[in-house]
């Protein structure tokens, strides 16, 4: 009887094991089919998206003018940004801004005009992130990079073809003498065509390297700017306490401030702009470097970067970019003499405003409570930002009328 029970138990266990194995195999097959189906669906969707992006790129690059591309770019992003601002809820639940206000804020951030109709502290972190993204894609350096990426090569080909075009002439041909017929086995290109092909390759290589340089330039200043601001805020309790009292995320503030300064957007997460940090000269100096690198001295820094790469790599492309700036058709890349004149003009105007600011308002209410070094840095911050960025470290209503007039002239 016990042997019968053992046999039945083994038989039952074997059947259970077999059924379990079959069930696991069916489940595995279904899972494999599901994964393959989803993978194929995602792959097909990815392929469709790539084709769509490629179609839009080719259509915009070949059929639309530069003006139409810029207009479509800014108008579409302004409306998309306003929709995102409306859908995202502000941090102040009692605050319900209208769509016109959000459209104005979106357009102001995208065009880096620095104007606002609502207090930035009443916006949520998500809305502030949208404004930061809009300032980034609307900054001058990023827009010039897009121009490089959308550079059309067909215009160069047409220009070169028209340059070597020969007008048709009528020639009467006589019957050839068979004894004078010469058979040519091979034809070698003329020296002119070889030189033209090499020049075209060199110009294309310069454009490609210029894209890499500008992209690295943008990434470097944003990465180091955000990191240095983060380190400073975490190490200085005064700046950290201001953000904690206002309920502003430290990383988001550092990133947004860096983007705003580099793009010369003028929108800061605090209602007082940078006046809340007028006793933090190190932070103001970091932002001054961002403002100069993103607009006023971008041609100088770009030329210095190319010159440094030429000295290190000894490549012909960098020498050609410095020598023949007009062939790249990249407006920020100016000849050496024009770059020097532009840089001297920027430094001269900033120095003039700094001297006038300190001489007129040194003992005034505008610098009340600041020591000498903080006054100089605050005045320098205003001198740099008055040209384009629109950020301020003091109360503008306390500035003397003569200095205000000079600021208006500089703007």
Automatic annotation (TrEMBL):
Transcription regulation is among the record's keywords: no
Record keyword Nucleotide-binding present: no
Signal peptide (UniProt feature, chain positions): none
Parts of the chain that traverse the membrane: 67-87, 99-118, 130-150, 209-234, 246-263, 283-306, 341-362
Major localization class: membrane
GO MF annotation: an example: monoatomic cation transmembrane transporter activity
Record's subcellular location: Membrane
GO-annotated biological processes: inorganic cation transmembrane transport; metal ion transport
GO cellular component, one term: plasma membrane
A Pfam family the protein falls into: TrkH
UniProt topology in membrane: Multi-pass membrane protein
Keywords, in A-Z order: Ion transport, Membrane, Transmembrane, Transmembrane helix, Transport
Family per record: Belongs to the TrkH potassium transport family. HKT (TC 2.A.38.3) subfamily.
Protein name: Uncharacterized protein
Protein's organism: Ensete ventricosum (Abyssinian banana)
